[in-house]
Amino acid sequence: MKTSNKNRVHQGVVKRLLKMMFEFYPVMLPVTLVCIVFSAIVGSVPAVFMQNIIAVIEQSWQSGDWGSVSTKILTLAGILIVFYVLSLIVSFTFGQFMAIITQGTLKKLREKMFQKMQRLPIRYFDTHNHGDIMSHYTNDIDTLRQMISQSFPQLLISAITVVTIFGIMIYYCVWLTIVVLIGVVLMLFITGKIGGGSAKYFFRQQIALGKVEGFAEEMMNGQKVIKVFCHEQDSEADFDRLNNQLFEESERANKYANMLGPILNNIGNVLYVVVAVAGGILLALGVPNLSLSSLPIGISIVVPFLNMTKQFAGNINQVSQQVNAVVMGIAGTSRIFDLLDQEPEADDGYVTLVNVREKNGVLTECEERTNVWAWKHVHQVDKSVTYTKLAGDVRLFDVDFQYEEGKPILHNISLYAKPGQKVAFVGSTGAGKTTITNLLNRFYDIADGKIRYDGININKIKKSDLRHSLGIVLQETNLFTGTVMENIRYGKLDATDQECIAAAKLVGADDFITRLPAGYQTYISGNGANLSQGQRQLLSIARAAVADPPVMILDEATSSIDTRTEAIVQRGMDALMNGRTVFVIAHRLSTVKNADVIIVLDHGHIIERGTHEDLLAQKGQYYQLYTGAFELE
Question: The CATH number of the domain where 119 resides is what?
Fold first, then answer.
């Protein structure tokens, strides 16, 4: 039952792939298939010509008329040459077309995968190994390439050749065809047994390969930590364990695969001998021929039959040799389709962010950029449209949240941040500080309660527009390969150079940027490996500054910066936060002293709230944190 289910899965993957290829190349692919069919049929033609040539010689031998033999043989040879020339042209054509179809299909699939990846929720990347995801673009795509470019054409050619030769065999002699079929049944039985065993392990091999790549990528990213803690030997041991698992799966798969070829070859050789003996016996006994051709059993039947037997068995062997590549290709394609079938990030929002002009308190939507924004709310009941000016008023009402079922993270969280207010979150690791900011961005959706942004339920706001109105600086910096200017402009793709430079000056990054070898045009790669941690963070802050959003989220924005740099950044941050609603997560309590309200979280509950002075006066947990009565971490 399990094997049947797997076969149905495999058939579904192949069917879906072929359907997709037909969609990509609705004309070229059918033309290529016709070329392959023609080439395969022409490959079976020599058996017919051989029979005719031997029959001509046999008749001439019996009649003693040798005068017309050379003419007939030359005519047949000339026709065969014409067929071969046509086959050469057709083979060249389908070879060129297959190269285009193969690489084009892979290109389009990579594009589809990347497009889908951009639309997946954050939860997917939090729960899947990044190296394993990368394996879809490398190993899985490569196995698919081999299957499309080599295995599929070879399987089709072999299948058509087998059917064509079988028809010719039936036409010439049913008795000898039965002998061949007995051998073929044995070959197919062995192929099913051994091929089925290799298929199971080839699937496991692809999964194990993804794990090895994922682990290698993780270790490359953590090389400094590995060396600092002298974890090299343990890392090697962990890698060896995964690598051994890959080796074992690959070894088993290839053991089965490598057994198949020699076994089938030898069965083919034995079958050749058996057919020769059977033909000799039929000739010796003068058994009447059973065929569609009405030709008697003779040398002109037996000799071509031997060649057809060899060709027949050879093509069966060719099919078996492609089993490995097909199985690996199906495994890789299945993993690709698993990625493509992932549920994209849901977005039912219909409130959008638009440019407006304001005159006498009336907001009017416009196309040109005015730097005045409003929420365009098309009401679902009567389709009326209202505009609410983007101000940055954020309020949470009785919010509950859990990443996993039965493991609540936030409990009954209620808070507000009026436009221009600075709200700070403090608390131990795991208290829920970053989770709140993830909910504001709708990286995750709340389980219960409400979050309102300028009075609008954020579930009604289109996610892209919601995130466009929010600026965020993360604790972990993410810089991209490109120039410093391009990395700053990432916060606002249509920003001018002057706007990028102004943002850098605002946060205090201009000083170190101008001292770089090429200033703002300095090329950085590897997440800014040639910059210090503080410099990378400054660029990250400048990137948020150029976006100029009304709401800023600063998640440990200065945690990786030294005290002197922090003083520089803090001045820029103060300028950046001026007039904006700001949510600050900080472990350095000195950075939140001037917050309008400080919220102390503990295990997902708000246990204290107030200004710095109010909380110190209460002498609660914040007081203990601030005075060092116990450590935050």
Answer: 1.20.1560.10
Determine, yes or no, domain membership for 346: no
For the chain, how are helix, strand and coil distributed in percent, rounded to 5? 65, 15, 25
Q: What is the mean pLDDT of residues 255-277?
A: 76
Residue 345 covered by a domain: no
Residue 4 lies in a domain: no
State residue 246's pLDDT score.
85
DSSP string for 364-432? EE-SS--S-EEEEEE-TTT--EEEEE----EEEEEEEEEEETTEEEEEEEEEEE-TT-EEEEEESTTSS
- How far from 354 is each of 117, 154, 351, CA to CA, in Å? 27, 56, 10
Please check whether residues 376 and 258 belong to one and the same domain.
no
Residue 102 pLDDT greater than 70, yes or no: yes
Q: Output DSSP code: residue 342.
A: S
Question: What's the distance, CA 281 to chain centroid?
Answer: 60
- Indicate whether 304 and 422 sit together in one domain: no
Whether the pLDDT of residue 93 is over 70: the answer is yes
Least trusted range by pLDDT, from 43-52, 151-160, 530-539: 43-52
Q: What is the mean pLDDT of residues 51-72?
A: 60
444 plus 382 within the same structural domain: no
pLDDT score of 277? 85
Q: Is the same domain home to 441 and 365?
A: no
**Same-domain pairing of 440 and 382:** no
Instruction: State whether 383 and 402 are in the same domain.
Output: no
Helix count and strand count (H, E) for the chain: 21, 16
Give pLDDT tens digits for 465-502. 998 888 888 777 788 888 999 999 988 888 899 999 99
The CATH number of residue 555's host domain is: 3.40.50.300
Q: Model's pTM, two decimal places?
A: 0.73
Q: Give domain status of residue 526, yes or no.
A: yes
Q: Dig out the tokens for 345 from the structure.
A: 């990030």
Total tally of structural domains belonging to the chain? 3
Helix or strand holding residue 362 (H, E): strand 362-365
Structural domain boundaries, residue 187:
13-340
- Residue 52 above 70 pLDDT? no
User: Do 461 and 375 contact (CB within 8 A), yes or no?
Assistant: yes
Burial 74-96 (b: 16+ CB within 10 A, else e): eebeeebeebeeebeebbebbee
Residues 410 and 436 in one domain: yes
d(CA 331, CA 206): 7
Residue 385 makes CB contacts below 8 A (sequence gap 6+) with: 376, 377, 378, 379
